[in-house]
Write a structure and sequence with these properties.
- The complex is a heterodimer of chains A (505) and B (224).
- Helices cover 81% and strands 0% of the residues of chain A.
- Chain A has 505 residues and is mainly alpha-helical.
- Chain A has two domains: 185 residues, Growth Hormone, Chain: A (Up-down Bundle), CATH 1.20.1250.20; 198 residues, Up-down Bundle (Growth Hormone, Chain: A), CATH 1.20.1250.
- Chain B is mainly β.
- Chain B has two domains: 89 residues, Sandwich (Immunoglobulin-like), CATH 2.60.40.10; 96 residues, Immunoglobulin-like.
- Chain B has one helix and 18 strands.
- In chain B, 21% of the residues are buried.
- Classes of the chains: A mainly alpha (505), B mainly beta (224).
- Chains A and B meet through helix 9 and helix 10 of A and strand 11 and helix 1 of B.
Chain lengths: 505, 224
């Protein structure tokens, strides 16, 4: 049928301008993750200046991190409405304004607001859209693109750390904040690169929607909800019967709460929330642990540098590995393995008491950390599909927000109570091994269920008794609905194993 | 206090704030090459008599009542090889910022001094040429402020900075056995200093964003 074909959305380019977008995302994600960590250099001076205690200063970091992750849903809603580009540019502007005003602060409370809230919110508006737009530009090479973009974090950290030290030695903390504000404006440059990519025009969508509604009302349950919410257009067809749910539908179109019924999404959410309890604490305590075992300050800092360098290399490499035809269909298993590997590293750390042992630990930790980070968003995209990813990432980050904030303080409490770092490592290690195992088992179950559903769908399609138009309509709708559709085509060529991904989306 | 003696010369710093009695002990490691060495305790050229507490440790007892008795005390063990260990008895050090403190005109400067033991008195000095001039808090209340954060942490705040406030400041902690000093360097910059790199970076951002926008318009026109 002509309308259905005219409405076929163009497939993701998987290259060309996409690589420029990856570079932009590299910068943007790099700032979002590395900037809060880089600020730690200024804390001692600010603590002396305002005469506060260490914990009051640490709140600046915590508020910043909490805002960056907690504002995820707001970021998602804005991207759903306006697209990635304006959101990132506004985010960059906000970060710049936040830091520049922080340079003129006269109390710690003002710092909480300027550095914590405003800059944190700006970084949140940077992080989510960058990850989202990669999903719009890539499909076949998406793991590589994700790996490369996420490599921005360690690279930026390695650049920011000495830069911050240089700025601080020459301009004091106020001057440094002023200049850092200007540097953060570079996020606007990254945002300018995020050219919007078409996802099909609105009139064609409504035509498809009506066709679908007539043919399939009542037949497709979850599938239907997936498609309609993916179209992101006010659906008049629903309001006919469910007049009372008008408001709910409107919220749903901006932030897809129906994701909470999506099996894959729930598995990912639970596994990741658990994992983040033990994810960041070892990095926070690595240098103090090294000093505790008698290593001097510079060698302890060197451990973190090793971690960052290995991380830098591990992320794109993991992206390439995850893109290969053996791993991509089973990428969820690879992700679970990476998490469990990370946990195993932490469990073995207390055995490393010498400096060489700690170097080995740092290298393996860097590798594991990079592997997990590179695939963090790729696996979510794989489970929910690029269309719903916008909302999914927002919901996931706000859920992770709590455990991310709790992780290091719980570790700190363990260290203070027992006076020994090994319990913190054991706690982090066991939490991550548990998360990895949980994800592995649940994804095995998920893959089996998806294979079953695919089989059922196939038998329905091949069944000559069922109304041909209805099924053709559905088949075409399957093919043509936004980004979900084109994903099926290139992947079908890759063989049986890949069909599992098709069902996953 | 004990020091295990092996091959390399050992040093240990001991901080003493007030008059006290102290015991210094040199102990030989169990699997050392030296057997039955000849032991002397010295301070400079002066020899001090010691006592043998156990078979492989030698102790001296000292009563430190004033600063003249502080210094370096060493135990020397002579046998086939000669090894020694030294105790440095000193007044407590002050911890503070080593690198120059950078502030801006009109802003406030903070210098913090911290010690292990509680001193008898704190004094702050500023340098006038080569002379040290003590800062009297009561005479310049709206310029200098002293704040005691705790007994062993002291804080000097200099308000309304000007270029003349550039220079070296000293913090002195007086103990019963002497006093120790710490040096701070204060640099007062004008607002123009960070403004130059700031404007440069903002200009770079504006240029890049404009270039990207123009390129996009150009390539869209090319398509049409």
């Amino acid at each position: 049928p002509a309308p259905a074909e005219a409405g076929r959305a163009p497939g993701p380019p998987d290259g060309g301008w996409g690589w420029v977008v990856v570079f932009g995302a590299f910068v943007s994600i790099g700032f979002a993750y590395a900037f809060p960590k880089g600020l730690a250099i200024f804390f001692k001076e600010i603590q002396d200046f305002f005469g506060t205690s260490y914990s009051e200063i640490a709140w600046v970091s915590s508020i910043m991190l909490a805002t960056t992750y907690g504002a995820g849903p707001i970021s998602s809603i804005l991207v759903n409405r306006y697209g990635s580009r304006p959101v990132v540019m506004f985010g960059g502007l906000l970060c710049g304004v936040g830091m520049i005003s922080a340079a003129f602060c006269t109390s710690i409370l003002q710092l909480y607001i300027c550095v914590g809230f405003i800059t944190g919110f700006g970084l949140a508006l940077n992080l989510q859209p960058s990850v989202i737009i990669i999903g719009k530009y890539f499909l076949k090479r998406r793991p590589i693109a994700n790996g490369l973009a996420m490599a921005g974090s360690p690279v930026m950290l390695c650049t920011l750390a000495p830069l911050n030290q240089f700025l601080f030695d020459n301009f004091g903390w106020r001057g440094s904040f002023l200049i850092l504000g200007a540097i953060l404006l570079n996020c606007c440059v990254a945002g300018a690169l995020f050219r919007p990519i078409g996802t099909g025009t609105a009139p064609v969508k409504t035509q498809l929607a009506e066709e679908g509604k007539d043919a399939l009302k009542g037949k497709i349950t979850e599938d239907g909800k997936e498609m309609s919410s993916a179209l992101n257009v006010p659906m008049e067809n629903k309001t006919e019967e469910e007049g009372g749910k008008d408001c709910f539908e409107k919220i749903n179109q901006y932030l897809d709460f129906s994701l909470f019924k999506h099996r894959g999404f729930l598995i990912y959410l639970i596994g990741n929330v658990l994992m983040f309890l033990g994810f960041f604490a070892p990095i926070v305590f690595l240098a103090p642990y090294a000093k505790h075992t008698g290593i001097d300050e510079y060698s302890a800092a060197f451990l973190l540098s090793i971690l960052a360098i290995v991380d830098m290399v591990a992320r794109p490499t993991t992206g390439i590995v995850a893109n290969s035809k053996w791993v991509r269909p089973r990428i969820q298993y690879f992700f679970s393995f990476a998490i469990a590997f990370n946990g195993a590293c932490h469990l073995l750390c207390p055995l490393a008491s010498s400096y060489t042992g700690l170097i080995v630990y740092s290298s393996f930790f860097g590798l594991a950390f990079g592997m997990v980070c590179a695939m963090l968003f790729e696996t979510l995209m794989d489970l929910v599909g690029a269309a719903r990813f916008t909302s999914a990432v927002g919901l996931v980050t706000i859920a992770e927000c709590c455990t991310i904030l709790l992780g290091p303080p719980i570790g700190g409490v363990l260290i203070d109570t027992f006076g020994d770092y090994k319990y913190m490592f054991i706690k982090c290690g066991s939490v991550m091994v548990l998360a990895g195992t949980f994800l592995f088992i649940m994804n095995y179950y998920n893959y089996r269920m998806l294979a079953k559903e695919e089989k059922e769908r196939k038998t329905k399609e091949e069944d000559p008794k069922s109304i041909r138009t209805e099924n053709e309509g559905r088949k075409n709708w399957n093919k043509d609905s936004t980004q979900d559709g084109p994903e099926l085509e290139p992947l079908r060529e890759e063989g049986e194993g890949v069909k599992k991904e098709m069902n996953g989306t | 206090l004990t020091v295990g003696v092996s091959r390399t010369p050992l040093q240990k710093n001991v901080s003493l704030a007030s008059p006290t009695k102290i015991e210094l002990t040199c102990k030989l490691e169990e699997n050392s090459n030296l057997k039955n060495p000849q032991v002397t305790w010295k301070r400079g050229s002066e020899t001090i008599s010691h006592t043998n507490k156990t078979q492989n440790s030698w102790t001296i007892q000292l009563t430190i009542s004033d600063s003249s008795q502080l210094g370096s005390y060493s135990c020397i063990l002579k046998g086939e090889v000669e090894v020694s260990a030294t105790f440095h008895l000193q007044v407590p050090h002050i911890e503070g910022k080593e690198k120059p403190i950078i502030t801006y005109e009109g802003d406030l400067a903070v210098m913090v001094c911290k010690t292990e033991y509680v001193p008898v008195a704190w004094t702050w000095y500023m340098t006038n040429g080569t002379e040290l001039v003590a800062i009297n808090p009561s005479s310049h209340t709206n310029k200098f402020q002293f704040k005691r954060q705790s007994a062993n942490v002291n804080r000097l705040e200099i308000l309304k900075l000007t270029k003349e406030d550039n220079g070296i400041y000293w913090c002195e902690a007086a103990f019963r056995l002497g006093s120790s000093k710490r040096r701070f360097e204060l640099r007062v910059l004008s607002i123009m200093a960070p403004l130059k790199p700031f404007v440069a970076v903002v200009a770079e951002v504006v240029i890049l964003v404009t270039t990207i926008a123009l390129y996009e318009v150009y390539s869209k026109r090319k398509e049409k």
